[in-house]
Amino acid sequence: MTDIARPANGRPDAKRPSRGKNAGLTIDRVFTTEGVHPYDDVVWERRDVVQTNWKTGETVFEQKAVEFPDFWSVNASTIVTTKYFRGALGSPQREQGLRQLIDRVVHTYRRAGEENGYFATPADAEVFEHEITWMLLHQHFSFNSPVWFNVGTQSPQQVSACFILSVDDSMDSILNWYREEGFIFKGGSGAGLNLSRIRSSKELLSSGGTASGPVSFMRGADASAGTIKSGGATRRAAKMVVLDVDHPDIEEFIETKASEENKIRALRDAGFDMDLGGKDITSVQYQNANNSVRVNDEFMRAVEDGKPFGLRARSDGSVIETVDARELWGKIAQAAWACADPGIQYDDTINDWHTTPESGRITASNPCSEYMSLDNSSCNLASLNLLKFLTDDDQFDAEKFEQAVELIITAMDISICFADFPTEAIGQTTRDYRQLGIGYANLGALLMATGHGYDSDGGRAFAAAVTSLMTGTSYRRSAELAAIVGPYAGYAQNATAHKRVMRKHQAANDSLRTVGSLDTHVQQRATRAWEAVIKLGESNGYRNAQASVLAPTGTIGFMMDCDTTGIEPDFSLVKFKKLVGGGSMQIVNQTIPRALRRMGYATETVEAIVEFIAEHGHVIDAPGLKLEHYEVFDTAMGARAIKPMGHVRMMAAAQPFLSGAISKTVNLPETASVEDIAEVYLQGWKYGLKALAVYRDNCKVGQPLSDGGKKADAAKPDETAPAAEPTVVEKIVYRPTRNRLPKSRPSRTTSFSVGGAEGYMTSGSYPDDGLGEVFLKLGKQGSTLAGVMDAFSIAVSIGLQYGVPLETFVQKFTNLKFEPAGLTDDSDIRMAQSIMDYIFRRLALDYLSFDERAELGIYTATERARQVETGSYLPEEDVTEAESLKNDAGDDVDTSLLDEPEVAAARPAPSTARTTSELFESLTGTSVDAPLCLTCGTKMRPSGSCYVCEGCGSTSGCS
Question: How far is CA 455 from CA 468, 566, 628, 753, in A?
Answer without folding.
Answer: 19, 16, 13, 41
